[in-house]
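dumping this here so i dont lose it
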């Protein structure tokens, strides 16, 4: 990577390149961002999620979840959310405001489930208990991986705005980026 990116275009390209790398490299800091959502009673909740796919052309981020999770209920109520990424290697913080569409059935979901059910992650969606529910001895048993995929859901996050912050000894830089605009901000 170039040591000091100068132009908005260079920075924008590098942001999307790093997001794409995060889906391929399990050790990339941006693989596990924080996702903040709001509940129906305006309580903000934040949790670490795994970035699964990035579509640069569509400006889309994708994560997987359990249909019984609180985040799905919150997103149904308020589909606007915020991802926060931090990389100590890059010295970059990236806050990404998104509008989330839930995918709970259909061919795209079935295709993704076929890949997930072959992995160790499948057990996350096959548990008879909902995420966050009390754990009882029999609740640790998983259902058959061939079962209906009713607990597996995909969240497609359409990027609305990027808030990029670079921390540097030569001076911090910050910008707000949308599909059509670029504004330098006071760090």
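and the seq i came up w/
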């Amino acid at each position: 990577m170039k040591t000091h990116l100068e132009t908005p275009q260079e920075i924008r390209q590098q942001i999307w390149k790093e997001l794409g790398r995060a889906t391929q490299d399990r050790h990339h800091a941006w693989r596990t961002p924080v996702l903040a959502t709001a509940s129906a009673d305006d309580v903000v909740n934040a949790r670490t999620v795994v970035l699964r796919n990035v579509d640069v052309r569509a400006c889309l981020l994708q994560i997987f979840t359990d249909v019984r999770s609180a985040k799905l209920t919150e997103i149904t109520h308020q589909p606007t959310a915020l991802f926060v990424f931090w990389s100590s290697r890059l010295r970059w913080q990236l806050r990404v405001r998104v509008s989330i569409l839930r995918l709970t059935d259909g061919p795209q979901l079935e295709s993704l489930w076929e890949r997930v059910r072959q992995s160790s992650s499948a057990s996350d969606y096959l548990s008879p208990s909902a995420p966050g529910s009390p754990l009882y001895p029999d609740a640790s048993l998983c259902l058959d991986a061939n079962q209906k995929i009713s607990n597996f859901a995909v969240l497609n996050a359409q990027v609305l705005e990027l808030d990029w912050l670079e921390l540097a000894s030569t001076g911090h830089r910050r910008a707000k980026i949308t599909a059509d605009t670029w504004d330098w901000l006071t760090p």
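Helices lie at 8-24, 70-77, 107-116, 122-126.
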